[in-house]
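Design request, tokens follow.
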């Protein structure tokens, strides 16, 4: 067993340990410890080391940048001294720490210069806590708790059928509730809307009838009760009482519904998302289908349909077991809860290819093709439109008319490939173009280095339709994938008359493609420095007549600062993204000393600079315009399981059209639903509570940051700001802010719904995602369609000159 595990597990008798009593008092009310359980706190206290210092010793020096320690003063007295402009640069005593105090806690959170000097007035006995140990123990404890929650959720049959990501979301939303010995958790006859899992302790389930109490069950750790409350308001059938001190994980139906939707719809949704013919439907459309499916009870031995019957109904099994067999009696498959059959009936009138019979009593969820068509339209049409939109994104086809693109859709052929399959190989001559329908592909260069990933609606191999050229990269199926392929012969048969126009388009497009393969720093004409940083700079450059931004990073400094993975992740994420509301990557390359990222250039400066240049805050109409870009950008990132974690006005760049783009993705990270990250990153004023307390965070932190941004744009300052960082972090964790009187009721409400302490209840992070934010009354009259097409007038157009836009609007990056 590791030392860390011993620290977490060996806490017997710790409550009476003098150090633990001292430390508990010292951290009382401290936001960095409030969220930790008693065992985790005690494990951290056990790691502290004793330091004796003499009177006159400087314990903390103002301005120190390598601070990593938190101190608990057991004996002695310390003075706090400030030396700055306000004190005339003469040390001034502002506070005195008596015995039992704790100080220096910000060093446990992040690296920042010490704000004051702490001087020992007398000989002192100190206990010292190191950031690395604090974070390690805290993270280990959080991972143990998360694993326990996931295990408990999976043990509940009605939740076990959910997908892994949905179970993770439910596990993350569970709240710990404590009960004293003898306390009633709920009573017989009460209306119930919560379910419980026993994490620690024991409970008794009993029922009273005709005045007599009967014990029905004794439940120990890992047991669950009240789960039917997640389905509907349920009258409790029994009393449940804690036998001893008990901790339960609990979740209410309202919170579950906001997170995933009504559980019965979620069950159906989970089944529908696995049906291949429904791949083109969005999650929202699948939920709409799930909601309109009808229950059909069926008895053991009953036939559902026979081979040769006309088929117009699709089925999902909610309960029971069914056999699928042919007319010779041979069983083709045996299916149960969550499985489906008859899905081709949604596409067209068809004769059933097999028999289906119930082996047990069961319940089927049925969806008639007419109901599907009435709700969403023809599935065949939906699949066609999905393909049409996918082709619209291909630059090579930008000159095609809608009818011509529609024609191309008709000759796309489906192709299923297994994980690990090489779809195209670098160096081989290709004649096929591909669109990813489902799954993920990874792109490798000739050196077998990963240079990008491709998901649904993304494409590759388009120039092979016109030219006999070797493939520039290898594309492998990272997961099982469904692709659409288009061969050169079919393409030319349809588009032959347009070959000349397409070749012209390919020539333009081909320049960019070849540049991505061969470009070097020496190919670029340097115009001006846009910004400088600790380990690189951003330059305005010109290539083939186009202005771009070149970010150069020193390899040596990246390695010295331990930022290799950070830079690698930024490049990979930018390579995967193609969004009009994000600064997009053109290509990346390197030489002996530097790494380079060539990006589209956004020349209107930072939103921060524009806000600072104004005499007052923005009008709400103007703030709404800028917030809309962020909403659309976050929506794109959310759809691709990405979190940004660095939203602030400095990272919003204004285009020459006045629209803004999100920039700087060094803190961005791939984060599937239900999973959490523990890395502290971002700007202090924009941190969400779960980032401050390092309780593990999800993509919900970006929606919190949006609330801070909207507040700052309309007020002129961020909502939680305080010169004292500890006070500011307390404001954040308590969601304590004042609302200026000029705020409209709509913007007040939106900010209130974004700045929610519980990330599982935060707008934007709920089941509907960004759609909830777009539908909020503050955006009631906002034309999202026109905005996405750049048809709305921007509130501010940056000044420019004939040569190039002034670079003075950029701050250091």
């Amino acid at each position: 067993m590791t030392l860390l595990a011993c620290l977490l597990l060996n806490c017997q008798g710790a409550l009476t340990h003098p150090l633990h009593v001292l430390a508990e008092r010292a951290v009382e009310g401290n936001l960095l410890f409030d969220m930790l359980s008693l065992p985790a706190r005690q494990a951290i206290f056990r790691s502290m080391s004793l330091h004796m210092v003499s009177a006159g010793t400087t314990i903390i020096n103002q301005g120190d940048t390598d601070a990593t320690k938190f101190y608990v003063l057991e004996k002695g007295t310390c003075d706090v001294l400030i030396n700055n402009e306000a004190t005339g640069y003469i040390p001034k005593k502002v506070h005195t720490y008596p015995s039992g105090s704790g100080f220096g806690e910000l060093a446990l959170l992040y690296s920042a210069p010490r704000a004051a000097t702490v001087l020992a007035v007398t000989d002192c006995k100190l206990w010292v806590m190191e950031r690395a140990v604090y974070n390690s123990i805290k993270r280990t404890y959080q991972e143990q708790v998360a694993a326990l929650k996931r295990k408990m959720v999976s043990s509940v049959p009605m939740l076990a059928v959910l997908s892994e990501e949905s179970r993770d979301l439910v596990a993350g939303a569970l709240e710990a509730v404590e009960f004293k010995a003898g306390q009633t958790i709920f009573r017989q006859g009460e209306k119930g809307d919560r379910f419980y899992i026993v994490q620690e302790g024991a409970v008794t389930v009993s029922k009273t009838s005709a005045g007599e109490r009967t014990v029905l069950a004794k439940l120990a750790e890992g047991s669950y009760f009240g789960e039917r409350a997640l389905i509907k308001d349920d009258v409790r059938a029994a009393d449940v009482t804690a036998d001893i001190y008990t901790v339960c994980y609990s979740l209410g139906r309202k919170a579950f519904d906001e997170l995933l939707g009504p559980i019965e719809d979620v069950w159906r949704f989970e089944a529908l998302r696995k049906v291949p013919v429904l791949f083109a439907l969005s999650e929202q459309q699948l939920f709409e289908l799930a909601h309109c499916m009808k229950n059909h009870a069926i008895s053991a031995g009953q036939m559902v349909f026979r081979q040769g019957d006309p088929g117009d109904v699709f089925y999902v099994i909610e309960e029971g077991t069914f056999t699928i067999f042919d007319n010779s009696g041979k069983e083709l498959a045996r299916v149960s809860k969550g499985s489906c059959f008859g899905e081709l009936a949604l596409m067209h009138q068809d004769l059933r290819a097999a028999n289906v019979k119930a082996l047990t009593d069961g319940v089927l969820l049925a969806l008639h093709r007419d109901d599907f068509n009435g709700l969403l339209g023809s599935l065949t049409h939906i699949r066609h439109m999905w393909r049409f939109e996918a082709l619209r994104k291909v630059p090579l086809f930008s000159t095609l008319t809608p009818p011509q693109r529609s024609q191309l859709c008709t000759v796309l052929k489906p192709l299923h490939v297994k994980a690990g399959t090489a779809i195209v190989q670098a160096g081989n001559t290709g004649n096929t173009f591909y669109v990813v329908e489902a799954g993920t592909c990874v792109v490798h260069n000739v050196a077998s280095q990963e240079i990008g990933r491709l998901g649904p609606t993304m494409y590759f191999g388009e120039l092979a339709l016109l030219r006999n050229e070797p493939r520039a990269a290898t594309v492998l199926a990272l997961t099982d994938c469904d692709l659409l392929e288009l061969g050169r012969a079919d393409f030319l048969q349809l588009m032959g008359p347009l070959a000349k126009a397409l070749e012209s388009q390919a020539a333009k497009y081909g320049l960019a493609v070849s540049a991505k393969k061969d470009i070097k720093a020496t190919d670029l004409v340097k115009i001006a420095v846009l910004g400088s940083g600790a380990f690189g700079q951003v330059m305005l450059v010109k290539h083939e007549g186009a202005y771009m931004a070149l970010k150069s990073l020193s390899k040596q400094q990246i390695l010295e600062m331990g930022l290799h993975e950070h830079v690698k992740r930024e490049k990979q994420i930018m390579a995967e993204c193609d969004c009009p509301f994000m600064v997009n990557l053109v290509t990346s390359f390197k030489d002996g000393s530097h790494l380079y990222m060539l990006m589209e250039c956004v020349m209107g400066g930072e939103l921060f600079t524009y806000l600072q240049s104004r005499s007052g805050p923005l009008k709400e109409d103007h703030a709404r315009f800028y917030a809309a870009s962020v909403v659309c950008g976050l929506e794109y990132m959310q759809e691709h399981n990405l979190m940004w974690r660095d939203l602030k006005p400095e990272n919003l760049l204004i285009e020459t059209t006045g629209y803004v783009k999100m920039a700087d993705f060094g803190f961005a990270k791939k984060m599937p639903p239900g999973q959490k990250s523990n890395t502290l990153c971002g700007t202090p004023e924009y941190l969400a509570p779960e980032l401050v307390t390092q309780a593990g965070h999800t993509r919900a932190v970006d929606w919190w940051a949006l609330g801070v941004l909207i507040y700052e744009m309309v007020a002129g300052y961020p909502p939680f700001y305080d010169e004292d960082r500890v006070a500011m972090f307390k404001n954040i964790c308590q969601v304590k802010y004042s609302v200026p009187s000029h705020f409209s009721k709509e913007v007040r409400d939106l900010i209130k719904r974004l700045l929610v302490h519980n990330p599982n209840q935060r707008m934007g992070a709920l089941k509907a995602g960004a759609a909830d934010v777009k539908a909020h009354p503050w955006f009631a009259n906002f034309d999202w369609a026109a905005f996405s097409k750049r048809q709305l007038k921007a509130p501010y157009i940056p000044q420019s000159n004939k040569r190039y836009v002034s670079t003075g609007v950029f701050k250091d990056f």
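Comment from the thread starter after seeing the answer: thanks! The radius of gyration is 31 Å.
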